[in-house]
DNA sequence: AATATACAAATTGGATACAAATACTCACCC
DNA sequence: GGGTGAGTATTTGTATCCAATTTGTATATT
């Protein structure tokens, strides 16, 4: 039996991973309470490692602690969506460029692996798997760029993006996913070829697609047009 | 006496602030051990709030925990300096542009306050105060932009920058600080005028100055030229 | 009836106690 | 004399315990 001997120190990581997955899935909705006692019961550990995991989530911006009260899943505030899209666009461009300049064989392998998962998820119409593999694909591009400042910011953006898109994933029922699969393939090709200018332009184009998506699907919810640019 | 009744919840913040200041000053050198027991004695609190503060420092990238061993101040690795400068340059430009577009009166007030401190520190040749007020000045510009994704990244960059420059602050004995004072004033003027294109260009120019500084003062230490761009 | 106040219950923040893993010491062996 | 190993000591990781703050409820007062 390869029953992991529950190694010391692995507790907070397990709890963190589980909660993070639930938050990104929107299994835990924005605003949902994260009760320390409940969680310690659920994971069979004391409150100490639970608190450590919660503090990491807070550092990621995925949770927020209300002083002397409980911790909650961070809300998605729509007024910051334009800021979000601005930063996302910039990071698509920058990471695309850097990846073209610095990609190594193992980076391309990671990108292809994530892209294969993405294509499979699209074929299966599995929205959650789509969002997750899409996130991993773009994260692989950022990692290929090798700049941890960009990688860390981009991960935060992609995390928030998973939650935003999960709200509106109905849009993925349309023809767009196939379009994204093709675009991803094109990005891999350009990055492999090392064409930095084209990779940056592609990143901008890809971002524009997503901006358009969100405009179409969020604006109606808000009841008014989102002021973008 | 306005003796703050030591309010519950303020412990970790105090410890975090004190340690962060020491790390940015380089009073705590990179690689220095952060012993939980020592710190709890020093601050007169138990290990619990100390650990919380350390975890926040780790999340900031200022400290690193070695599993089952102690936490240390994160090392400054010179091989990532080019990445650092790349991201810093981009953030100078982006935050300059955004600040010009979205500045409010209170933002300009904060910028001017930090700039006054910076000028005073330059006049007094106080290197630490220079670095700190310089950091606060640029952070005020980022805050004026209002995009928390950029603000958070920029704060990390400015933190790392304080440590890097502290290593080589002899360069500030030269004529350059006065140059920086003038440039900062020019940035305030352009941001107040709302000229986004010029503000972005200024940011890039300012970054170029710093890149040049670091090249001149770090390259000799490394024994070879740093490959930049 | 509505509001304010006092009381009670629940939950977080912090302290202490305990267990596991690592580092250090010193002796012993080659 | 140097290296290896057992045993000890120190330090982190986890559990439990206590206190302080807040929320909700019930009662009393206007």
What is the mean predicted local confidence, pLDDT of chain A? Answer: 88
Order of helices and strands of chain A: HEHHEEHHHHHH
Shape of chain A: globular
CATH architecture of the largest domain in chain A: Up-down Bundle
Strand content of chain A: under 5%
Helical/strand content category of chain A: mainly alpha
Oligomer: homodimer
Give the largest interface pair and sizes: A-B, 26 and 25 residues
Q: How would a crystallographer describe the biggest sheet of chain A? A: 3 strands, antiparallel
Biggest sheet: strand arrangement of chain A: 1-3-2
Please report the number of helical segments of chain A: 9
The separation of the N and C termini of chain A measures 58 Å
CATH fold category name of the largest domain in chain A: Four Helix Bundle (Hemerythrin (Met), subunit A)
Radius of gyration of chain A: 19 Å
Count of structural domains of chain A: 2
What is the CATH superfamily of the largest domain in chain A? Answer: GntR ligand-binding domain-like
User: What is the percent of helical residues of chain A?
Assistant: over 70%
CATH class of the largest domain in chain A: Mainly Alpha
Which regions of chain A have little confidence, pLDDT < 50, spanning 5+ residues? 223-229
* DSSP strand tally of chain A: 3
């Amino acid at each position: 039996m390869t029953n992991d001997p529950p190694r010391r120190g692995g507790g907070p990581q397990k709890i963190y991973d589980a909660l993070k997955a639930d938050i990104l899935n929107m299994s835990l909705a924005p605003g949902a309470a994260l009760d320390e006692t409940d969680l310690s019961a659920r994971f069979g550990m004391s409150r100490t490692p639970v608190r450590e995991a919660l503090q990491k989530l807070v550092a990621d911006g995925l949770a927020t602690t209300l002083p002397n009260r409980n911790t909650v899943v961070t809300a998605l505030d729509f007024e910051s969506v334009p800021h979000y899209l601005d930063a996302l666009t910039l990071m698509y461009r920058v990471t695309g460029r850097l990846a073209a300049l610095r990609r190594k064989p193992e980076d391309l392998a990671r990108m292809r692996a994530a892209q294969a998962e993405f294509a499979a998820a699209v074929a299966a119409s599995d929205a959650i798997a789509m969002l997750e593999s899409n996130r991993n694909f773009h994260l692989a591009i950022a990692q290929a760029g090798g700049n941890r400042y960009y990688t860390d910011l981009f991960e935060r953006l992609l995390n928030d993006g998973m939650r935003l898109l999960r709200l509106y994933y109905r849009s993925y029922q349309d023809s767009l996913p196939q379009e994204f699969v093709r675009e991803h393939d094109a990005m891999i090709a350009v990055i492999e070829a090392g064409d930095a200018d084209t990779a940056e332009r592609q990143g901008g184009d890809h971002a524009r697609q997503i901006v358009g998506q969100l405009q179409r699907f969020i604006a109606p919810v808000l009841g008014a047009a989102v002021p973008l640019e």
